Amino acid sequence: MKKALRTMKVLVARKSKLLLCMPIYFIALLSYGQSQKISGKVTSSADGQPLPIVNILEKGTSNGAVADMDGSYTIEVSGPEAVLVFSSIGFLKKEITVGNQTTIDVALEEDVKSLDEVVVIGYGSQKKSDLTGSVGTVSSEEINKYTNADATQAIQGRVPGVRVDANGGTPGANSIVTIRGTGTMSDSGPLYVIDGMLTNSMDMLNPADIESVSVLKDASASAIYGSRAANGVIIVTTKKGSKGEIKVDTDFSYGWQKAVNTIDWANAREYAAIRNMANDNDGTPRAPANDSQFDPTIDSDIQAANLRVAPIFNGNVRVSGGGENATYSISANHLDQVGIVEESDYTRTNIRANSTFTKGRFKLEETIGLTRTVNNPNNYFNQERDLLPTIPIYDEEGNFTASSMPDGGTSIYGVGNITNSLGLATVEDRTITRNSVLGNIAASFEIIEGLTYKLNLGLDQYSQNNYTFTPTFFFNATLLGRQDFAELRESNTNFLSTLAENTLNFSRVFGDHSLNLLAGYTTQKTHSRSLGIVATGFPNNDVRVASAAENRAQAPSRDITTGLRSYFGRVNYSYDSRYLLTATIRRDGSSLFREDLRWGTFPSVALGWNISEEDFMEDITFLSDLKIRASYGELGSNNVAAYSIDPEMNLFSEAILGEGQNRVPGTSITKPVNRDIRWETTKTTDIGLEFSMLNNRLQFTMDYFNKKSEDILLSITVPRYTGLDGRVPSNVATIQNRGFEFSSVYNQVLGDVNLSLAANFTVLDNEVTALGIPDPIFGGGYSSNGLSATLTDVGQPVASFFGYKVLGIYQSDDQAAQDGRTDGAGAGDLRFQDTNGDGALTEDDRVFLGSSIPNFEYGFNVNASWKNFDFSMFFNGVSGNKILNGNRYRGYFDTEGNYLADAQNAWTPENTDTDVPRMSLLDLGFNRRMSDYVLESGAYFRLRNLQIGYTLPEVLTEKLKIQRLRVYTSLQNVFTITNYTGYYPIVGRGNRDRGSDQNIFNQGVDESAYPTPRTYQFGLQISF
Q: Any alpha helices (H) in 609-666, and if so which ranges?
């Protein structure tokens, strides 16, 4: 490959010299301004085949022609000084001066990205052919083919080893990104480096501002970030300006969203029949509203009332340009997304400015992004105890209600607690407003040739107001159906993170030796302060400020400061582009640990061999390039809450002492601590193979990795005999992730069709190899009955589903008795497996039932163009995972909510051929216990995105005085093939248990996930 490129350069150079040496007098024979007729043929340089539909344009004019199906063309130009521009999709543009020629045959080269493309890595960039680490990339070309509201979704399914899991379809919801499997016991995600600033999210970014995304997956690639990189690193580079005329790019789209799926809940008559069946089975009286007082005029559908077709608008404007010493890019974006669930919406406004200034050896770069988001969530959709279909949504006056009784009673319905989710969401006022700034300024100076010093100063700041006002209301007389005192919950949070990085970079080539040295020192400090108020007792529902409340019950506040100081260095060495070495070391000090345990050292080393550059590969023509690489490294993580090593004291506590047992004032420690906590360590081994065929048109990348995370910080419950109550972090757990990644890219021109195909898949095995505590970790709560769905234990994936295995349904009471059931189970109840064979059903019979972590994940992209049309499709899918369907649990076993319509098919002596157990309110057989009955396969295959576009021909755009005009239509979630019966098989993590920093134990629990929409959009792109 290298020799071929050298030969091509020599030929091009010779041709250029010949053109420059043409006798000037020969051109002078033609008079200025005299027209000249040119004809010729356009072919592909790769195979010599004719190229149809090639645009031929006389530069600087609107005079043009198009090659026919044989590649032939004819054009009349102004004279010998005319320059012809040949362009075709999928080929490099070519310019030729006419001179005295009347026949010009042109061979266009395919626009195939070579292995010399530059990839952004930590604190710099590197040629892809010189990479020794595992790095996945996504370009702006791929991102811009689809309209994404969330920047994180732009990398979903495009980089093997990277899982992007949305928290349902909630507008503005944060996506969960996992790189090469879960390696922690918390919700910590990867580190994001946005234009040099280190932060914890890319949610604030406008996807249209992204130039490229690099995902650093193994230790060799990410070790330069040390303790910040244990969960992977995602480097985002935003678009910069370029030298030339001022350019204006606009992109506006408008569309509609609709729920992909709905749940088949029972209507009023079906509900009444099912509830009556349960009462009859239990021998209890029927509820009057379902029997003697059934009202056929009431048939409420709270699901239909909550769901709607919702609009979405996205607008982008960018102005860019530059001169000899400076470039700039200024962009603005506004996203307005109305949720498909009533009373939910999200807006985001972005302004970003990037600029560069170069003078001699000095370079100054600046990037700043301003973002404002306003989120109005609906926290009540599809919750427990929602409105029954036998209860009206509105009363006669059009007000929300949850009872048709004059006193608001619910006894007629046979339930104790019921509410109206749409009413709650409507009367409550909730808004989360955030104003954020993310940016940096970097100055670099080349001290001597090859030696550059750089100072990078970064800022990540936001101010957030979280406001919820619940007015007084009365839907019914139950606890959930009324609010007797208006309540205000409001908090204000200010967050500031500052970064200062000093780096020294030396890069030189000595003959066949290429050397790059990097040394750096960095400090980052974060400070967060919040103050809140909980107030009740307002004069009326219109006054909504805390100062007007009778009772200011709470004023929660916090002030947190953390710091990190780091030293790092890296060596990149290449000999003759064949033998590659990368060695990195980083030493981090964290304020979260005590002084003698504060510092951690994290090294890595990687080797690469470009086999295709060896002499013995010259005769192997079917391979364009071949490289193998291997790496090992260690990364750290200070994955613990601030001040975990500092005890908390109550200065106003009391103790009972003495013979009289009198209360004595004093001071007591209220929070247990473990001052011996230290760094988590992740050790990663990676072996990679890269090769390409067919002159780089077909490229493959394969990686095997083994990632072992040790000394994982886990919160352990303190024994009560210590006199303390709470959980304390300890370095006790170990998690291992092993897997295989594969990706391929194929580019081909077939006649007038330019085709690009890309595919990838990941095989992953996640296992807890050590826990270090006497009891496993329960999690995954999915009902108000306190049931848990997941268990984290040695030998299993993190947060595996744990419960009973269902073998069927008892067809007689004798069958239940023969199984040793003494809990009241009988005919029609679920039959659970007696795992240990002791003849009794106990907690010891519970088993692991699967995991929410897919063991196989894949993506497939198709991009094609024909003439001025372009076409893109993106497929992705997962398999091997389970989802707990909370709707299935509630639809069969909840005593105070609606049933699934399928509950009509419940077991009866006359209907035994069914998998639905008998309906019962008493549930003596405890059918509702955690079992695989509520688990479903989470596997799916979907057409995630589809886009079709048309670009106006240049002849027309020139007449319109614009550079480019493209119209497109885009569809998201076009179709999904799955056996999951919930709203959608992407559910994120439930949040009933353990607090927001421990939701990892709730992954795959679909308690009431927001439905994922199907989106139809139409867009217009114009460039000036």
A: none
Quick: pLDDT tens for 834-875: 999 998 999 999 999 999 999 999 999 999 999 899 999 999
Residue 978 host element (H or E): strand 964-978
Mean pLDDT of 148-167: 83
Kindly state the DSSP code that residue 236 receives in the 8-state scheme: E
pLDDT at 128 over 80: no
Residue with tokens 């103790």: 655
pLDDT over 60 at 16, yes or no: no
**What is the enclosing helix (H) or strand (E) of 935?**
strand 935-937
Q: How far apart are CA 135 and CA 179, in angstroms?
A: 12
What are the angstrom distances between the C-alpha of 179 and each of 156, 162, 275, 852? 11, 5, 47, 16
**pTM of the predicted protein model:** 0.85
Buried b (16+ CB within 10 A) or exposed e, 253-278: bebbbebbbebebbebebbbbbbbbb
Rounded-to-integer distance, Cα 743 and Cα 134, Å: 12
Whole-number pLDDT of residue 357: 95
Question: Among 412, 532, 535, 536, which Cα is nearest to 476's?
Answer: 412
Question: For residues 821 and 829, what is the distance between their CA atoms, to the nearest angstrom?
Answer: 11
Q: What is the mean predicted confidence (pLDDT) over 446-455?
A: 93
Task: Tell me the C-alpha distance between 24 and 966, whole Å.
Answer: 43
CB-based contact 802:789 (threshold 8 Å): yes
pLDDT tens digit sequence for 179-196: 999 888 877 788 899 998
Closest CA to 528 of 463, 576, 577, 614: 463
H helix or E strand, kind and range, residue 444:
strand 429-448
Q: Is 593 exposed, middle or buried (0-12, 13-18, 19+ CB in 10 A)?
A: buried
Q: What is the pLDDT of residue 184?
A: 83
Alpha-carbon distance 147 to 414, whole Å?
Answer: 49
Q: Residues with Cβ < 8 Å from 403, sequence gap 6 or more?
A: 391, 409, 410, 413, 418, 475, 476, 477, 481
Measured between alpha carbons, how far is 613 from 535 in angstroms, rounded to an integer? 72
- Closest by Cα among 2, 108, 3 to 47: 108
CA within 13 Å, CB half, 593: 23
Q: 154 or 430: which carries more pLDDT confidence?
A: 430
SS3 of residue 91 by DSSP: strand
Is 1's pLDDT higher than 50? no
Q: Give per-residue pLDDT as tens, 357-387.
A: 999 899 999 999 999 999 999 999 988 899 9
Q: SS3 for 665?
A: strand
Buried residues in 946-985 as b, exposed as e (16+ CB within 10 A): bbebebbebeebbeeeeeebbebebbbbbebebebbbbbb
Q: What is the mean pLDDT of residues 41-64?
A: 80
Alpha carbon distances (Å) from 397 to 378, 393, 394, 400, 401: 24, 11, 8, 9, 10
Euclidean distance between CA atoms 540 and 634, whole angstroms: 60
Q: What is the arrangement of strands in the sheet containing 882-885, beginning at the earlier edge strand?
A: 935-937, 882-885, 1005-1006
Residue-level pLDDT at 11: 36
Q: For residues 837 and 824, give the distance between their C-alpha atoms in angstroms, rounded to a whole number.
A: 20
Q: For the residues 59-81, what does the mean pLDDT come to? A: 84
Q: How confident is the model at residue 46 (pLDDT cuts 50, 70, 90)?
A: low
Given a contact cutoff of 8 angstroms between Cβ atoms, the answer to whether 1015 and 255 are in contact is yes
- DSSP 8-class letter at 707: E
Q: Do residues 847 and 872 lie in contact, with contact meaning Cβ atoms separated by under 8 Å?
A: no
3-class DSSP state of 721 = helix
What's the pLDDT at 90? 59
